[in-house]
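Appendix C reproduces, verbatim, an entry submitted by the partner laboratory led by Prof. M.T., so that reviewers can inspect both the input and the predicted structure.
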Amino acid sequence: MTLPPSARYVVIGAGIHGLSTAWHLAAELEARGIGSGRDVVILDKTGVGAGPSGIACGVVRNNYFQPAMRELMAHSVAVWESDPEAFHYHSVGYLQIAPEVMRGDVVQIAEEQRAIGYESVLVEGKADCRRYMEAMFGDWQAQGITAVLHEKRGGYAENGPSLRGLREKGAAHGVEIHAPVRVTGFRRSGGAVTAVETDQGDIECEQVVIAAGPWVRDFWSMLELPDTTVVLGRDGRAYDRPTWTYWCLQEGTLGVDPRSLLTDAGKLPPVIHVDTDAPLLDDIDGSLITDELWGIYYKPDVNFGGIQGGAMPWVVEQPAASVAVDPYGEASREFTVTPEFERMWTAALAHCHARFVGKRPLYRKAPTGGIGAFTPDSFPVFDTFHQNVYMIADSNHGYKMIGVGALVAKELLGERQGLLEPFRYARFAVGALHPVSHSPFPWS
């Protein structure tokens, strides 16, 4: 397919954000009688789902300590629920299981979920938490748990099929995807971008949307935006922070029958997320892995078999400019899971369920994982730069946030969206940072 010489809207990136934005924008243009999907072009240097969206574990949750994230995720969950067949979405719910140090955070999340009408069940106290979990799993044995928040909505989606479903929704409106096409720069005039430069020619445009996940750093540089950001901290002092910091994401699969995680009633379980400060011991040799706060999440992988999940990411100790984002995912020479993850994650599964004790030899030794580009407060940036470049800067929350594209589409047509206001770039300079919880995960 030949690259067109011009398009009203050029979307860069064919992951969850780019596909969702293009689909919703096309639908909005048609509904308003001011255009169609033929006005929208998606460019990707590889293809649909070639970045984090294509290898994500697929968890969809609303378990956020930050009110702005919680409201945004309630909106996104509703989009997942709007067509579960097309999105291959399983609405099985989500369990946040936490220790005493996080109990207050979980209680606050439950109260605020209730305030926005998001159904969940809160259980407190060691004895009641154990009874609640044992009612689902007779072999439940996690220690140090004093809070369980059971979200009745949420669950997980099958990443590859869900992206194909999104692509088909856009295509039904006439949206074209051009790949492989590599963006090499931008032509600017009068403070705005007038064309996107690629290895297959230039595309003149009225509006650019960048939804490039961990490659956001490269487009940020092409647009000559700052490498560092002045952040007004919670202590009132100003700090010069890197605009982007890369974190290595850790996920893997235990090669057992996915039905081995069915509840005692024979049903698919909720997605399970366990944080605890109980010592984590190696279930094979009994040695100590950690006595600090740790966390994992897991679910059945009904597509390829096994139990799939992950643990806390680790910071890539390199300046963002020198991090090799390509090759990405399984092809990476640097950023895939380590033997330490395998030991920790399988031991953590055994800590939670007796059924997984001694199962480490069944771990699939595949190069899984990836990297994400994190902002100074680890939360996304949704904002306009250079007058007509809309930046969806998010590569760690991305997959579950399918609804952001619907909001961005409205903003592109002149309707500012309140759900996106807390995620403007200016928040760093004015100190409007998102609150942080006691979770071991940087995005919670």
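The chain has eleven helices and 23 strands. Additional entries are available on request from the coordinating office.
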